[in-house]
Write a structure and sequence with these properties.
Blueprint (H helix, E strand, L loop, with lengths): L14 E5 L17 E4 H4 L14 E3 L8 E3 H5 L6 E4 L10 E8 L5 E4 L5 E5 L11 E5 L21 E4 L8 E7 L7 E9 L4 E3 L10 E3 L3 E5 L6 E5 L15 E4 L3 E4 L3 E2 L11 E2 L4 E5 L6 E5 L3 E2 L5 E6 L2 H8 L20 E4 L2 E4 L10 E6 L3 E5 L6 E4 L5 E6 L7 E4 L1 E4 L2 E2 L5 E4 L3 E5 L2 E3 L2 E2 L13 E4 L4 E5 L2 E3 L2 E2 L6 E3 L7 E5 L12 E5 L2 E2 L3 E2 L2 E4 L9
Parallel strand pairs: 13-14, 19-20, 24-25, 25-28, 26-29, 27-30, 28-31, 29-32, 30-34, 31-35, 32-36, 33-37, 34-38, 35-39, 36-40, 37-41, 38-42, 39-43, 42-45, 43-46
Antiparallel strand pairs: 1-2, 1-3, 3-4, 5-6, 5-12, 6-7, 7-8, 8-9, 9-10, 10-11, 11-12, 15-16, 17-18, 21-22, 23-24, 44-47
Length: 543
C-alpha cells in the first residue's frame, strides 16, 4: 500500500489521519486500507511515540511515516505520559502510596491518574467551581470529569484526600509539601515524593520502535515514556520530534540549522502556553505570534493580556492610576483609591508621564502603595514608555504582602527620579511575590545614612521573610544609594527573602536573548546575573 498522506492546506499544521479501522481492514504490516479524514496533531492528542498495533474502532494514523501505524485512541491520547509512584504519605493515608496509571486528559489538557485501589490524582483549576483559580493537584477517591473546566469532582466544596497548589503540566515530581487529611478533616503538611516510572530504554538499533520498550533516537537523545509510547528527549541541538529526526516541537524547516518558529495555533487546552506553538485564549481573541512568542489579540471586552485572561482597566492620568491600584492604608498611608481593581485584574497605563504634581498620590512618601494586591500593572506598550516620575521627592511604588500564591507583575514602566531613605524606585516587603518585567530604573536614589537600619537600594529594596522578586529584561541606569546597593538591596537581616536577576526575556519574547548591559551594584543575597538586560522586545531572529 502507498504511504498515507494528508493535504496541508495552510502549511502551518502537522496533519494526521483518524480512521475507523477494524482488524479486517488492516494488513499484517499495519497499512490502513480504508479512507480517512485529516485532523491536526492537537485534535488527535498525539503527543509522542510509535504505538502498538491495536486495531479497534478508534484508530489513529500517523501520516508522515512510510507506513501508517494505528493505535487505540485512548492509548494515543496518553502517549508520552508515564505512570508515577507516590511515597511518603502518613499512615492514615497509606492507600495513596504506590503506582498511579494515567487514565485520560482533563479539559485543561493535563493527565489524570488512578491507582488499583481506586484512588485518583488530577489537576483542578478551581475546585470550588467559582471564578477564583486555585490551580491544585488533588488526591481523591473518585474519578474527575474529563469535560468540566472546574470543580472536576462535582462537589463544589474542594473535597479531597490531599492537595498541593501547583499549576505544572504534570504532578510535581520530587519531594514537596502536600496538605494531607491524615485521619481528620483538617489537612496537615506531609512531605510526599512523586517519581515518574520510565519504561523505555535507549537502543542502538534503528529498527527498535518502542513496542518492546527499546527505542532508537536518531540524533542523540534519551528514550523515555511507557512501552508502546516511547519518545526521545534531550536531542542533539537543532533536532526534536519523536525520535530526534525532525525540527524541535513548534518549529518547521530542515534540522538542525534551518528550523524556524511556526505560527502559533489556537487550542482548547488551558495548559498550552505557546512553548510548542500551541496557545490558549481564555476569553475569545485571535492567535498571533510564533512558537515561544504567542499572544492573543482582539479579546472579548473587557479582557486583555497575553491570553485574554485579565480584566483590564485603562488609565491615562496619575489620579486614575492611584484610584485603580493604590489600596494600602498601612502604616503612614491614610488615603486609598476609590475604585481599586480586584486581585488578578490588570491596570493598563496609557503612554506618558505620571507625576504627583499632576494628580493624586498616596499621602506619604510613596507615589503608590499596594497591599496584598495581585495582578498586572503595565504600560500599554512593552517599550517602557510609561514614566512614573518621583520628581526626586517620592518613592515610585511600595508593595506590601501578596495575595498568595498569586503575584503582582510590574511591566514596562520607567521609574524615574524616585527617592526615599531606602528603595527609591520600588520597595517590596512582607512576603510579597513580584515579577519586574521590561522596566527601566532611571536616576532613582536612596538617601538613608543609617547602616544599622538597613538603609540603601537606590532602585529596588527587598525585605521581610517570604518576599520573592524576579527581574526580567530590565535596565538600571544612574541609580544611587548613600550607603549600599545603588541598584538592588536585599536586606541581609531577613534570610527568607529571594531576588533573582534573569538573563532571559519574559513572554511573549521568551525566544529572544536580551543584550547584557552594565554590571549592577547590589547588596545582600542577589541571585542570577547581576547586569542590566535590554532589547527583549521584538521578533526573535531565525535561521
Amino acid at each position: 500500500e502507498p504511504p498515507c498522506k494528508c493535504a496541508d492546506n495552510n502549511s502551518t499544521k502537522n496533519l494526521y489521519r483518524i480512521e475507523g479501522a477494524t482488524a479486517g481492514s488492516v494488513s499484517a504490516s499495519g497499512t490502513v486500507k480504508l479512507t480517512c479524514k485529516c485532523i491536526t496533531e492537537r485534535q488527535a492528542k498525539l503527543r509522542a511515540g510509535i504505538f502498538s498495533l491495536l486495531f479497534t474502532n478508534a484508530c489513529l494514523v500517523r501520516c508522515f511515516m512510510a507506513l501508517c501505524i494505528c493505535a487505540n485512541l485512548a492509548a494515543a491520547e496518553l502517549a508520552g505520559y508515564m505512570s508515577i509512584t507516590v511515597s511518603g504519605m502518613c499512615s492514615q493515608r497509606g492507600g495513596l502510596n504506590g503506582v498511579f496509571i494515567p487514565q485520560g486528559l482533563t479539559a485543561s489538557g493535563r493527565p489524570w491518574y488512578k491507582k488499583a485501589n481506586g484512588a485518583t490524582l488530577y489537576f483542578d483549576p478551581s475546585c470550588y467551581g467559582d471564578e477564583l483559580e486555585y490551580n491544585t493537584w488533588i488526591f481523591d477517591g473518585q474519578e474527575p470529569s474529563e469535560t468540566a473546566t472546574s470543580n472536576l469532582d462535582g462537589d463544589a466544596s474542594c473535597g479531597y484526600l490531599g492537595f498541593i497548589q501547583n499549576d505544572s503540566r504534570l504532578p510535581p515530581t520530587g519531594t514537596n509539601t502536600w496538605g494531607i487529611k491524615c485521619g481528620s478533616s483538617t489537612a496537615v503538611e506531609v512531605s510526599v515524593t512523586i517519581s515518574e516510572n520510565n519504561e523505555c530504554i535507549t537502543s542502538t538499533s534503528p529498527t527498535d520502535d518502542g513496542a518492546s520498550g527499546h527505542f532508537y533516537c536518531t540524533n542523540g537523545g534519551t528514550a523515555w515514556g511507557a512501552v508502546g509510547g516511547c519518545a526521545c528527549k534531550s536531542c542533539n541541538a537543532g533536532f526534536g520530534g519523536v525520535s530526534c529526526e525532525e525540527c524541535p516541537t513548534g518549529y518547521i524547516g530542515t534540522p538542525p540549522n534551518n528550523c524556524s518558529p511556526r505560527p502559533c495555533q489556537a487550542t482548547s487546552y488551558t495548559v498550552d502556553d505557546g512553548s510548542d506553538g500551541n496557545f490558549y485564549c481564555i476569553n475569545g481573541g485571535d492567535i498571533s505570534g510564533t512558537t515561544g512568542s504567542c499572544r492573543c489579540e482582539n479579546c472579548n471586552a473587557p479582557f486583555g493580556g497575553l491570553n485574554c485572561q485579565d480584566v483590564e482597566h485603562h488609565v491615562d492620568s496619575m489620579t486614575e492610576l492611584f484610584n485603580k491600584i493604590s489600596n494600602s492604608a498601612f502604616e503612614w498611608t491614610v488615603n486609598t483609591g476609590d475604585s481599586v481593581m480586584s486581585s488578578g485584574d490588570s491596570a493598563v497605563m496609557a503612554v506618558g508621564e505620571y507625576k504627583c504634581s499632576k494628580g493624586t498620590c498616596s499621602a506619604d512618601h510613596n507615589m503608590l502603595s499596594l497591599y496584598s494586591l495581585s495582578g498586572l500593572v503595565r504600560c500599554a506598550n512593552d517599550n517602557a514608555s510609561c514614566v512614573l516620575d518621583g520628581e526626586n521627592t517620592r518613592r515610585g511604588i511600595e508593595v506590601i504582602q501578596s495575595n498568595a500564591p498569586y503575584k503582582l507583575i510590574i511591566r514596562a514602566i520607567t521609574f524615574k527620579d524616585g527617592k526615599y531613605i531606602w528603595g527609591g524606585g520600588v520597595e517590596i516587603r512582607s512576603g510579597a511575590i513580584v515579577d519586574i518585567d521590561l522596566c527601566i530604573f532611571l536616576g532613582c536614589s536612596s538617601t538613608g545614612t543609617d547602616a544599622s537600619n538597613g538603609e540603601g537600594g537606590g532602585a529596588i529594596y527587598i525585605w521581610e521573610t517570604g518576599t520573592t522578586v524576579n527581574v526580567y529584561g530590565t535596565a538600571f541606569i544612574g541609580n544611587t544609594a548613600f550607603l549600599d546597593g545603588n541598584d538592588v538591596y536585599n536586606w541581609p537581616g531577613d534570610p527568607g527573602t529571594s531576588v533573582t536577576i534573569h538573563d532571559t526575556c519574559p513572554a511573549p519574547y521568551s525566544l529572544n536573548t536580551p543584550d547584557q548591559g552594565s554590571v549592577l551594584d547590589t547588596h545582600g543575597n542577589v541571585q542570577g546575573e547581576k547586569f542590566s538586560f535590554v532589547n527583549c522586545v521584538g521578533e526573535p531572529c531565525t535561521n
